[in-house]
């Protein structure tokens, strides 16, 4: 190692002297003149890229919905236990943060978007997916296929603008057949009340006038090379998860089988009211978590904290999320 030269040392001393002059000058300024750095008051783009074999995946953040919950939110656990789980994860009691992240899969030949965000039609703190798609350098018309996991508004609303125009103008739309059958059936609509009734009307708003263009698939089917649908019923009658396979690597896209991991991965047996068939949803959730942890599969889940991707490990009677570490693409 060469010895520190006189010039290097002199350079350092000069810099240090200049810095102390700046500090001294700042100390003589009035407070208002010193506060010259404006706050950004905005978040940076919510885009995270990672690879799975030959696929390039892009997590697209839509936002977060702070949903108030009441005492009966989990049918088989008391409010105290639920709030203990929330505060144990450093979250506020009585509010469920529902983070929303859609997944764009570039298979090398097709751009496939799995679920479409809330389109800003649910809460002010979500609806940023298209801005993040733009930040990722992709236009809505670049998307070839939109795949839907189920018909809840936070998954389908992004298909259309508030005015009813299609957002992904070129894309083929693929939906689970049993989900279509349930939500598009007017006899079911007339039998329901309150929240669920709203979901029926919303599904009709999104799909009715484009029904002829929507491709319905049977869960279990391979939708595109390397994208396989998995029946994951319970949350809704046709709720669907997905497995991605490329060049010997696999990943589980769990959709809404596990939402907030601090509640429902740690307590897989809890039955929240937004699972339409609570007991079936528990079976599905356990099956999914068991497969993910036993096979050490990478998972993504629509409502996990951004970038909504990581691994699941067994912990006690439940599971813990080990999030991916932000890394540059190899
Ligand atoms: Zn959802």
Lay out the secondary structure.
Layout: H1 6-28, H2 31-34, E1 47-52, E2 55-68, H3 79-88, E3 95-106, E4 111-114, H4 129-135, E5 145-147, H5 153-156, E6 172-176, H6 177-183, H7 186-191, H8 194-207, E7 214-217, E8 222-224, E9 227-231, E10 240-246, E11 249-253, H9 261-264, H10 278-294, E12 298-300, E13 309-315, E14 318-323
Parallel strand pairs: 4-5, 5-6, 6-7, 11-12
Antiparallel strand pairs: 1-2, 2-3, 3-4, 8-9, 9-10, 10-11, 12-13, 13-14
The structure holds zinc ion (ZN).
Structure keywords:
330 residues, single chain, Metallo-beta-lactamase, Chain A, binds zinc ion, disordered N terminus, 7-stranded mixed sheet, alpha/beta
Kindly summarize this structure in a few lines.
By secondary structure, this protein is an alpha/beta fold.
Overview of the structural elements:
This protein has a single domain (47-323), classed as Ribonuclease Z/Hydroxyacylglutathione hydrolase-like (Metallo-beta-lactamase, Chain A, 4-Layer Sandwich), CATH 3.60.15. It is globular and about 50 Å long. The strands form two sheets. The chain has a seven-stranded mixed sheet. Strands 8-9-10-11-12-13-14 form a seven-stranded mixed sheet. Helices cover 29% and strands 25% of the residues. The chain has helices at residues 6-28, 31-34, 79-88, 129-135, 153-156, 177-183, 186-191, 194-207, 261-264, 278-294; strands at residues 47-52, 55-68, 95-106, 111-114, 145-147, 172-176, 214-217, 222-224, 227-231, 240-246, 249-253, 298-300, 309-315, 318-323. Zinc ion is lined by residues 152, 154-155, 256, 302-303. Zinc ion binds next to helix 5.
């Amino acid at each position: 190692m060469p010895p520190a030269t006189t010039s290097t040392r002199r350079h350092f001393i000069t810099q240090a002297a200049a810095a102390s002059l700046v500090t001294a000058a700042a100390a003589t300024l009035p407070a208002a003149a010193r506060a010259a750095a404006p706050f950004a008051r905005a978040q940076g783009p919510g885009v995270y890229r990672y690879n799975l074999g030959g696929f390039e995946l892009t997590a697209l953040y839509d936002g977060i919905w702070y949903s108030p919950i009441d005492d009966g939110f989990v049918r088989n656990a008391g409010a105290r236990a639920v709030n203990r789980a929330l505060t144990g994860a450093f979250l506020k009691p009585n509010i469920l943060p529902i983070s929303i992240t859609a997944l764009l899969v570039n298979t090398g030949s097709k751009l496939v978007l799995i679920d479409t965000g809330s389109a800003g039609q649910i809460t002010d703190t979500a609806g940023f997916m298209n801005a993040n798609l733009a930040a990722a350098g992709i236009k809505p018309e670049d998307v070839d296929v939109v795949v839907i996991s189920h018909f809840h508004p936070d998954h389908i609303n992004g298909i259309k603008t508030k005015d009813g125009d299609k957002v992904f103008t070129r894309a083929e739309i693929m939906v689970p057949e049993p989900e279509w059958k349930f939500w598009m059936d007017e006899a079911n609509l007339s039998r329901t009340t309150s929240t669920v009734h709203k979901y029926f009307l919303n599904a009709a708003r999104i799909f009715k006038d484009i029904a002829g263009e929507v491709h319905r698939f049977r869960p279990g089917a391979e939708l595109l090379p390397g994208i396989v649908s998995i029946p994951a019923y319970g949350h809704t009658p046709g709720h669907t998860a997905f497995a991605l396979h490329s060049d010997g690597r696999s990943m589980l896209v769990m959709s809404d089988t596990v939402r907030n991991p601090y509640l429902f991965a740690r307590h897989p047996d809890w039955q929240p009211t937004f699972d339409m068939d609570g007991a079936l949803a528990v079976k599905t959730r356990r099956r999914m978590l068991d497969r993910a942890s036993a096979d050490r599969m990478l998972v993504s889940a629509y409502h996990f904290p951004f970038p909504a991707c990581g691994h699941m490990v067994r912990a006690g009677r439940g599971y813990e999320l080990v999030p991916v570490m932000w890394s540059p693409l190899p």
